[in-house]
Amino acid sequence: MTQSQIFGRAIWVQAGTPGPDLQRPARPDSPHFPILRRVFDVTSVKKATLQVLGLGFFTCRINGVPVSEDHFLPLFTDYQPRKDYPIEEKVTGHRIYVPEYDVTPLLREGKNALTIHFGGGWYTADSSFYEATRKFGDAKAIYRLTLETEAGVEELVSSTADQFADSFVKTYDLITHEDQDYRGYDETIHGVDYDDSALPCVSEAAPLPEETRYLRTDAPADRLAETLPVTLLGCDGDTKYYAVEKEITGWPVLKLKAAPGELVTVYFSENVLENGKPDPVYHHSQRFSVISDGKERLVRPEFTWFAYRYFSVTGNAEVEVCEFIHSDIAVTASFRSDNITLNWLFDTFVNTERCNLHTGVASDCPHLERRGYTGDGQLTGHAVMNIFDVENFYRKWMGDISDCQDIYSGHIQYTAPYIRSGGGPGGWGSAIVEVPYVFWRHYGDVEPLKKYYHQMLRYFDYLEAHSQNELVVSDKAGEWCLGDWCPPIQVVLPAPFVNTYFYVKALGRMIEIAKLVGCEWDIPRFQRTMEVKKAAIMAAYFNTWDGNFIGCFQGANAFALDIGLGDERTLPKLVEYYEKLGRYDTGIAGTEVLTRVLFENGHGDLAVKLLTSTDPISFEGMRQAGATTLWENWPHATWDRSRNHPMFGAVTAFLFDYILGIREGVGGKTLEIAPILVDSLDQASGSRVLKSGEVKVAYEKKYGTTRFQITTPVKATFRVGEVEKILEAGEHEFTL
To answer: Which of 27, 170, 319, 477 has the fewest C-beta atoms under 10 angstroms from its C-beta?
Structure first.
């Protein structure tokens, strides 16, 4: 849709006097974060519908009452082309999502006041912390209020009749900080009794370019998900140190008690020192500050969130609670076993993903970068879809991946929406194939496969253009060319080996996809290309003298086996290597591939051994260090930065696929329950919500037998070892 189709006669407006091209206010002293105000009269309103946008993020009130509980709207997209952005490509598309609210209950007979507080967000982000983060444009807003009255339909739209005032948000960086100053701020500005006679009027702002498509918001927004108490760890003068029970995203709610002009500052960290102070190594430049006007009031950030478990407060303020903010997405799965590490892994992955679901994007981390990395996202997509209700969330993110493709080369950017970042040509860009494919497997929706099919083919053109001797050997000039990432030591797997693996894997998906979208004529080409690429991998990386690929280091044999390479020695060599090592030595991709290949090839005991390893370099190592979110790097790795990255948690999917054995057909229409019983586990239970309903599986080993309790929403095939039986929909209990 276009601007006029949604907003009618409304225009984009901004604070200050515009420059000659309407692009930015000419007054240097005009507020960056203004509050727009409009007073209007209504009578006999039967229904009132508000469509509203503020860029970057915005909040909107009518008569002082928020129009919704949403935070950080609009959803993050590639809103429009950017001038002077450090990018060589022209991306495919630009979208913006428009929230719509029924505001009938908020209106009253007579005078009403509508206010929009707009300012910080991805649209206006110009981060000093990450040079590559550059804004799309300056703060502006547009709205349309449709009033159905007894006399007919009336409209109130944004125009130069609106007024504006400066807000209490003074300085801001989406990635690092927000600073507020309440001196001179009058909160009654949101009500009808506020004296606005001295307020200046807004000016017209430039509309979004014609390339931008306007869409109605159908993906979940961020909301308050949980309120947590705080624990006082200690104090030093007027600084107090606090902890929350787990790492969260959001903020502490402060009750200001400071005198006029006094400063209150909050610093955040993921770790704590022995003296109770937040660890500055894991501070990540996160800061929130407030200058008091002398009034006792509750304060919190408006336009950013922080990722933390520990924080300090300097100044005269009390901490009320901490609010956990993330996308309004339900957890629809459960898991428990008699192994503490597996239970921790499930709980911690859930918490990590909740921290990383913001503004319609599944991010790599909720503090340092906050970007939708296509590598991280495709690795964890299956696990996330196993555990959360994310159908609309991923439908939106697939559109972001589509938008970020370079129309000239076919390159898929490393992040979607696109913010210049690092990655590689296989394990990142193949998200254009992998995410729609996994989405189809989970939800049974073939439309994304049809919609993005030709973009998948264009990405293959890019991979071919960056290949030598049939191996994917390079990426964009001057950019990274990663294969795998974040093993305990430096990556030893050659990037062409890993990237060509992802190319072959994507081609295998395309054979299925071509049948689904009616393009069967492409299948022979996919098959020929697969064989050529596989032969190139064998020629370059297979050790004919021992059956290994690259010494079996960092899961090399697993990558090969996953696409049908190697010989009769390759799997035994893989098993021998990891039985002896007893832990992971893999990066973010290799950890998922290795664990899955072991489960799929009859070595579930070894897969669980790696998942539950007590070696310091392990998930258990994170748990014993007190982690409540997964780390970017293994404990004791050569590099340590973030303590909140989800990608190693991709293996959480296998708690359901293999340990519980819940393996649904496309869209959950068929179901197989085939638990892999391993010697190290005597009990496991859990559930998942499929499209067809909830499935529950529990088993317990005792006295040489195994007792099963299963609830299935559809007829299911049960299979353990040589035992196979059909289970009708309903509850079942039996012993083997």
So the answer is: 477
The pTM for the full model equals 0.96
Dihedral (Cα; 464, 466, 468, 472), 10-degree rounding: -80
Element (H, E) at 255: strand 239-256
Q: What rounded mean pLDDT belongs to the chain?
A: 94
Helix (H) or strand (E) holding 287: strand 287-291
Of 279, 327, 288, the closest CA to residue 306 belongs to: 288
Paired tokens of 34: 């203004």
HSE (side-chain half, CA atoms, 13 Å) at 617? 19
**What local confidence, expressed as pLDDT, does residue 17 receive?**
62
- Within 8 A by CB and 6+ apart from 657, the residues are 386, 599, 663
Predicted pLDDT of residue 25: 47
Q: What string of DSSP letters covers 389-437?
A: --HHHHHHHHHHHHHTBBTTT-PBPSBSS-------TTTTTTHHHHHHH
Instruction: Tokens for 354, please give them.
Output: 């909740």
CB 69 within 8 A of CB 394: no
Q: Under 8 Å CB-to-CB from 557, ≥6 apart: which residues?
A: 548, 549, 566, 570, 571, 573, 574, 577
Separation of alpha carbons 375 and 364, rounded Å: 9
**29's tokens:** 């002293």
- Average pLDDT score over residue span 125-150: 82
Beta strands in 676-722 (DSSP E): 683-690, 693-702, 705-712, 716-720
The string of pLDDT tens digits covering residues 554-578 is 999 999 999 999 999 999 999 999 9
Q: Could you identify the residue written with the tokens 């869409």?
A: 215
Number of helices (H) and strands (E) in the chain: give both, helices first: 14, 36
Q: Please provide residue 272's backbone torsions phi and psi, each rounded to the nearest 5 degrees.
A: -130, 145
8-state DSSP, 124: T
Backbone angles phi, psi at 620, to 5 degrees: -65, -35
Determine the length of the chain: 736
Q: What is the DSSP string of 619-687?
A: HHHHHHTT-SS--SS-TT-S----S---GGGGGGHHIIIIIS-EEE-GGGSSEEE-----TT-SEEEEE
- DSSP 8-state symbol, 279: P
Cis amide bond preceding 20, omega within 30: no
- Cα Rg of the chain (Å, integer): 27
SS3 string, 155-208, reads EEECCCCCEEECCCEEEEECCCEEEEECCCCCHHHHCCCCCCCCCCECEECCCC
CA angle 582, 585, 591 (to 5 degrees): 100
Which residue in the block uniquely carries the two structure tokens 């102070």?
277
Q: Which amino acid is at 200?
A: P
Sign of CA dihedral 66, 72, 77, 82: positive
In our burial notation (b when 16+ CB lie closer than 10 A, e otherwise), range 675-687 reads bbbbeebeebbbb
* Other CB atoms within 10 A of residue 100 CB: 15
Residue whose token pair is 């407006």? 13
Return the number of other C-beta atoms located less than 10 Å from residue 538's C-beta.
15
Residue 22, φ and ψ in degrees, nearest 5: 65, 10
The residue type of 33 is F
Ramachandran area for residue 15 (φ above 0: left; ψ -120 to 50: alpha; else beta): beta
- Give tens-digit pLDDT for 164-188: 999 999 989 999 999 999 999 999 9
At residue 85, the 3 state secondary structure works out as: coil
In order of 243, 335, 620, 622, 682, the CA distances from 348 in angstroms are 18, 12, 12, 10, 22
Q: What is the pLDDT of residue 131?
A: 61
DSSP 466: T
d(CA 197, CA 708): 73
Reply yes or no: is the peptide bond before residue 28 cis, omega within 30 of 0.
no
| Dihedral, CA of residue 485, residue 495, residue 423 and residue 562, to nearest 10 | -70
Strand partners, 154: 147
Q: Which residue has the tokens 């960086």?
A: 173
